[in-house]
């Protein structure tokens, strides 16, 4: 009998909902690690009748244990019980439930019991572990255990009620315990009758006591009153100690957080200053650099560098030509000047002048001499009329004239030496003039090239180079370095921004931790640490006062305990008094226990009456029909006797109790009650399948067929998963339900 089906004075009336509130069914199992299974998916399962077939040791029992473990927790290792825990891994896996209407899938996962069930755990709102094991888990072991039990009726009553114990058995146990409290047997220490009699005897003896008894009475009262006071003081001290410890730990944590907060703020300020310095430095670099160069594209820069290289080559050629022309001009000029100033040339010129002078002297002297000689001879020849002398005189005069003419010719004809010297001077001068002209031409070409270079650099944005190709290259290098510096600036700025973001996140986290600490300590936010220290000091003073009070109470408690112990040893009155108090206490406890038992009896009787009047008739009606179906009409009715015993009736009206039935018939009766209860209690475990593990192995062929039909009828209302290793059962299930879903292991 489930909680939803039991009705008592303290519970509301529950009506059975015959239509499923949720169309969920188990669609598959995913075993990560459990027993011998690892990374295995079992399924798919249909929403109605399913058969899981596998050979012995294929893992059918393991799957049943896995299903229950995911829903309600893994089994703890106790004794020799198999917990299916792998040796090298934790148990873990998932169950997948599918909504039959929408095909939406829900996953339930369990890894460790301490983490609980992960997923839509509300599936288990209408069922607990005990109800699942009692109603939804049908095993061959449970059916076989009916052979050995001494209380078969209790087992079947349990199945009929849906609880872990028979209600009639529980009621009988309660009535037995009530009888103990009203019994006069001397061996029952909690009997109210015996305690009352002993209390009367003690009261009569105590009535004879005098003033001393009264004094001990007051002391005993004080002694008992001190006990809760001591406990209250201890509790207060423990509470104060916990508060002081929490405040001290919280104060230390707040101090640590404040220090970290200060360091984080300082670091943030340093990062902000570093960022400002970086931005200022970057701005200085940007001001110092031509914007056109700073934004030049890499391809344009490459082309510009190639052009500059060509210009450098051209200038180098021009400069080389100028240098060569200048060197040639210098050499020719030096040669010319050296020629003019050469000593051998001057000596040649002097020698030539001397020869010229000798020639002139001879040219004058010889003709004069020949004239002087010829005229007298001519005159003498005329005088002597000598033709030879006359001819000789004429010849001498003519020869003188000839010499004079030759002297004139020689005088006006330059000498070869002079001509050679003049030619050398003219050649040297001509070479010098040609080299000078070549130098002027090369210098003009160099000037034109420099002008063109300056114009090109100005147009290319390199006017600051002032025509210097080396400076232009330097400017390009500076622009490249500036762009690299700009990229580095961006990276450093991004790094600073990331660090600032991390600092801000840490500051926010520190503030959250502080808020959480303040909230946990129960004090106002941002309370100064000095006030917390003051609060700790106040509580410490309060603790000192409590300690002093506790010591006084303990001292008094010890004194009273010692006096009462001494009185107990010395006087019978103390023993009677203490015994009377003990009997009174035990009598009160027995009265309370009896009241609880009477209340439990009343509630259980009311719950049994309510269940018998509402749910029980329908359960036994269904169970009777199903038992008749399973036994081919041999047994036709299941009922409860007035004495609370389960009975079955055959077709000839023979009434028997379950203990007198065969094992197979008893198992069929048990299965009928389970199926009837599951059909009736549709508001319990609506999404949970029925897990049946080889429950038909002890049935003969005819009754097995009836049980299969009963399971098919149950599958029309609930999902049923039957585990079996017998192929004949699989074939029988297929013949009974053409829509059967078969899963092979």
Automatic annotation (TrEMBL):
Claim: Coiled coil is one of the keywords in the record: yes
The keyword ATP-binding belongs to this UniProt entry's keyword annotation: no
Domain called YhaN AAA: residue spans: 26-209
Cited Pfam families: AAA_27 (PF13514)
Listed transmembrane segments: 360-379, 391-412
InterPro entries for the chain: P-loop_NTPase (IPR027417), YhaN_AAA (IPR038734)
Key words, A-Z: Coiled coil, Membrane, Transmembrane, Transmembrane helix
Coiled coil start-end: 192-274, 493-520
Database matches in Gene3D superfamilies: P-loop containing nucleotide triphosphate hydrolases
Protein known as: YhaN AAA domain-containing protein
């Amino acid at each position: 009998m489930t909680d939803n089906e039991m009705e008592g004075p303290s519970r509301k009336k529950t009506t059975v909902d015959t239509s499923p509130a949720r169309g969920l069914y188990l669609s598959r199992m995913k075993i990560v690690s459990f027993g011998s299974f690892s990374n295995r998916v079992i399924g798919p399962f249909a929403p109605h009748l399913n058969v899981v077939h596998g050979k012995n040791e294929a893992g059918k029992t393991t799957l049943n244990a896995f299903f229950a473990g995911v829903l309600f927790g893994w089994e703890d290792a106790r004794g020799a019980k198999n917990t299916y825990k792998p040796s090298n891994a934790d148990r873990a896996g998932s169950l997948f439930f599918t909504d039959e209407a929408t095909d939406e899938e829900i996953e339930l996962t369990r890894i460790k019991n301490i983490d609980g069930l992960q997923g839509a755990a509300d599936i288990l709102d209408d069922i607990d572990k005990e109800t699942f094991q009692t109603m939804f888990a049908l095993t061959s072991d449970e059916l076989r255990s009916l052979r050995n039990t001494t209380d078969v009726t209790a087992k079947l009553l349990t199945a009929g009620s849906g609880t872990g114990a028979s209600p009639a058995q529980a009621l009988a146990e309660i009535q037995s315990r009530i009888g103990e409290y009203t019994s006069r047997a001397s061996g029952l220490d909690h009997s109210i009758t015996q305690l009352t009699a002993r209390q009367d005897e003690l009261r009569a003896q105590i009535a004879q006591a005098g003033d001393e008894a009264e004094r001990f009475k007051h002391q005993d009262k004080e002694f008992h009153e001190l006990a809760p006071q001591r406990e209250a003081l201890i509790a207060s001290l423990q509470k104060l100690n916990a508060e002081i410890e929490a405040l001290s730990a919280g104060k230390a944590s707040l101090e640590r957080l404040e220090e970290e907060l200060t360091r984080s703020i300082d670091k943030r300020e340093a990062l902000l200053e570093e960022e400002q310095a970086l931005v200022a430095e970057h701005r200085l670099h940007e001001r110092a650099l031509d914007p056109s160069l700073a934004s030049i594209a890499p391809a344009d820069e490459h082309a510009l560098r190639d052009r500059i290289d060509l210009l450098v080559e051209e200038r180098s050629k021009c400069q080389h030509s100028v240098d060569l022309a200048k060197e040639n001009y210098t050499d020719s000029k030096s040669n010319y000047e050296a020629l003019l100033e050469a000593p051998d040339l001057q000596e040649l010129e002097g020698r030539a002048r001397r020869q010229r002078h000798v020639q002139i002297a001879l040219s004058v002297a010889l003709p004069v001499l020949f004239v002087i000689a010829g005229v007298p001879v001519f005159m003498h020849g005329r005088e002597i009329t000598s033709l030879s002398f006359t001819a000789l005189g004429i010849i001498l005069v003519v020869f003188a004239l000839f010499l004079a003419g030759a002297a004139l010719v020689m005088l006006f004809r330059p000498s070869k030496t002079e001509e050679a010297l003049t030619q050398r001077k003219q050649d040297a001068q001509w070479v010098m003039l040609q080299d000078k002209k070549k130098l002027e031409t090369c210098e003009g070409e160099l000037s034109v090239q420099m002008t063109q270079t300056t114009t090109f650099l100005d147009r290319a944005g390199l006017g600051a180079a002032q025509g210097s190709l080396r400076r232009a290259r330097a400017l390009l290098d500076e622009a490249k370095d500036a762009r690299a510096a700009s990229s580095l600036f961006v990276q450093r700025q991004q790094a600073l921004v990331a660090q600032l973001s991390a600092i801000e996140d840490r500051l926010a986290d520190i503030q959250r931790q502080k808020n959480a600490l303040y909230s946990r300590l129960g004090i106002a936010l941002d309370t100064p640490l000095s006030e917390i220290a003051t609060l700790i000091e106040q509580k410490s003073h309060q603790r000192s006062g409590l300690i002093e009070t506790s010591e006084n109470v303990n001292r008094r408690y010890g004194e009273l305990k010692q006096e009462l112990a001494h009185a107990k040893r010395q006087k019978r009155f103390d023993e009677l008094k203490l015994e009377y108090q003990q009997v009174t206490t035990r009598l009160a406890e027995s009265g309370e226990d009896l009241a609880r038992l009477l209340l439990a009896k009343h509630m259980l009787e009311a719950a049994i009456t309510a269940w018998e009047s509402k749910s029980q008739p329908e359960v036994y009606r269904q169970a009777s029909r199903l038992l008749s179906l399973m036994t081919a009409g041999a047994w036709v009715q299941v009922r409860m006797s007035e004495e609370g015993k389960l009975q079955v009736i055959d077709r000839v009206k023979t009434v028997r109790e379950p203990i007198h039935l065969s094992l197979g018939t008893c198992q069929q009766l048990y299965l009928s009650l389970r199926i009837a209860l599951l059909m009736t209690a549709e508001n319990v475990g609506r999404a949970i399948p029925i897990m049946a593990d080889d429950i038909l192995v002890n049935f003969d062929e005819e009754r097995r067929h009836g049980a299969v039909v009963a399971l098919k009828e149950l599958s029309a209302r609930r999902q049923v998963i039957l585990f079996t290793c017998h192929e004949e059962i699989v074939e029988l299930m297929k013949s009974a339900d053409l829509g059967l879903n078969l899963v092979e292991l």
